[in-house]
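Troubleshooting entry. Yesterday's outputs looked truncated, so today I'm pasting the complete records for two proteins to confirm everything comes through intact. If either block looks cut off, that's the bug. Protein one:
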Amino acid sequence: MDRFTNSMKITIVNDLTGFDRLHDSWNRLLESSDFDSVFMTHEWFSSFIRAFNLEKQMSIVLVYDSCGLVGILPLYREYVKYGFLRCLVLKSITNVHTPKYSFIFRKGAGVLLPKVLALLQRMVQWDMIQVDYISQDLFILKHPSLMIQQRFHTAIVPIMKSPRILLGGDWNTYYKECFSKSLRQNIEKSIRKTQRFYELSCEVIEGAKLTKTDLEEAFIIEDRGWKGQNGSSIIKNESFRKFYEQLAFQTSHNGWFALRFLKLGSRRVAFDYCLKYKTSYNLLKTGYDEKLSKYSPGHILRKNSIMDAFESGYAICDLLGASDNYKLKMANGLDCLYSMYIFHNGVISRMMKFILFDAKEIAGKIGIKDSLKEIYYRLRKPVE
């Protein structure tokens, strides 16, 4: 499907064949954007869409001007019922495994977004667009007035604060000044304790050396911790396993992936699943054998990984995820992540905005917000 306005055209890709053909042009556009992140590469979405079975729901919007491809909105469709309302929601291709997300626009072209959404609304008649895990630094949060000009209404909701390390200077200075004193003492004490009983080493697996066996061992280590106990570990969910396996092999071909193990003797006891992209070193998944927690293997390996990021010349080491206490003791910065909900002036869209946001605000003022929340969850039902 195509839609034109002046010199701009939008096309929707909703099949894997069309999506796969985009690989080169997708990554070229990403390199010219304001958010050139590994989490927005074609490799990331290829792994994600296949692992989480979104092939039939894809609505990837391509934006063209007279110079060619200028924007990509990676979205998927979901029909939802809120009571008697049947709504079409376009969602960012994200879930809890997504660290960060953005629409992709050539630098300076993000101002086209409201016009793109207006064209998209006439093409597929969406009722709401929900975009999750948007970084505080992205243009989509900085130009609300542009949305208003096109008669769109937005609601922006904070999700989490994600710790990161802005790298600069030398490792020793950072380690002394930014790692908390208690954490440094714990790490150094743990290293001395471990070395009394084991040979301590770090193993790094990259490129063609990576095997499924290596990944499986990392997943088993994660399963020995609290995620294994509550059933949320990679190895206990086929979609999770498929995603992290495919992502590792797709990115390792480009030199973007590293699997780091901490070893006590010959035994692997902790891992960091890392994505290395341009100037950013990203600690996507981590885990350690909790039976050996007295040796603090996770902290020892984390120190090693951050030190490697310093020495390799990266500009940022992103710890990702929520602001857990141990991460805050290492980080020197936070990235605030948000969800954005976009509505237009149609009747159903305005009613959705009232149900999801305006009614909650009124309920909060009169003290029945919790009751309304329960009603909301009972009303909402995905439509097959």
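Protein two, checking that the full record survives here as well:
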Amino acid sequence: MPALKSLAQSLRLRINEDKSPTDENLSALPMKVSTPHLAVSGAAMDVIVPQTHTKKIVSGMLLLLCIALMAAGLWRFMPRGLQVSPDDVRIANVESGIFLDDIVVRSKAEALHSVILDSVESGRVEEVFARDGAIVKQGEVLFRISNPQRNLELLQRQSEHTQQISNLANLRVNFEAANTDHQRRLSDLEFNLMQAKKKHARNVTLAAQGFISAVALDESADTLEQQQRAYNEEKKHSSSETAVKRDAVAQMERAIKNIEGGLTLVNATVAALVVRAPVAGRLTDFRLQIGETVKTDQHIGRIDDPLKFKLSAQVDEYYLNRVAIGRQGWLKQDARDYVVEVSRVYPQIKEGRFSIELVFKNQQPSSLSPGQSLDAQITLGEPKAALLLPNAAFVTDSGGAWVFVVADNGIDAEKRMIKTGRRNNRQIEVLSGLKEGEKIVVSSYAAFGNATRLQMKK
């Protein structure tokens, strides 16, 4: 404000120059004093100086001018908008370029095929034969646990099975004995029937020749009928009894088969106490210790295919509708490019991300290890000319719906609504609201709150 101070000093000088001499000024002038002979009045020495309105008006105008200049200066230097330090913000230009419709995801190498090892039985770990990370063969023993309850169940099942087999044997013996007895009686009746038929046939011949009476013929006929009826009843009774006993034997055999099935399950349960590798591969996450108690369905580890791998990655939920099975991409490893393809998409969103799986199309890197991280680039569409913004932190806070546009003075920034399109890891496509060459704040907006204007001054 040096200019205002100099202006005020010059105004004071002009006012002092226009002032008329006052009594004090007159008293400061030298005067010649003489002794009067007569008494002289002082009225002739006072001079009345009339004050004009012009000086008051000029003074007032100058005062108003000073106030106006001071107000203008205050207005100019008064902060407008939220005060931020230029060191705390990052500014980028709106540029024209080629939008590359792809995304780069951080993926992790995993075995393409894995078999989960869960305990099917509970018990105490007695022996451990394998170590984590070892290559195992199919059927190789991994560990052994003990469970006295399962051994007791096996003994009970074996005892029950033995008892039922003994019962079936006795039933078959009784059935054979009864069948033999029926056959013997049936043979006797059949013999008696044949004798009665022969006798009656002779009596018929004799009766026709008049050698026997009609009464004797009737008696032989009755005897034949009685023998025939006895033979038929015995044969029918033997068939019914045989059917019943055969059904009893069949039921007993089915019961034994059920017992044998239970015995097989118990045997399998006891055999499961010795855990073997279901497939060949690399044993992973296997950390059992001798003496440890294992519970049913407890996760013990897994066996991975040591030769073939897949990639799993987390992708921002913004790309959920654009990432689909069959989308291809590539990654660089060992100075070579490898083609990958999206094989699975898990649409469940957790913490703003969803999961995908990628498989190698032709070849895979020879130096991959489980858990190794790789950057894979997935193509979502064709390149296209567009107005571009860098994909920076401001997108998280504004969602790409608005930005702070920096004024030409490089100090002020104002909030402006925009419309954006596709995105990748580096670029955002601008559809409307911005022009090429404009500058925007691309750092995080979280600290700005609800501010609509910013002023960047140190």
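Both blocks look complete. Sanity check on protein two: The first strand starts at residue 82 and ends at 84.
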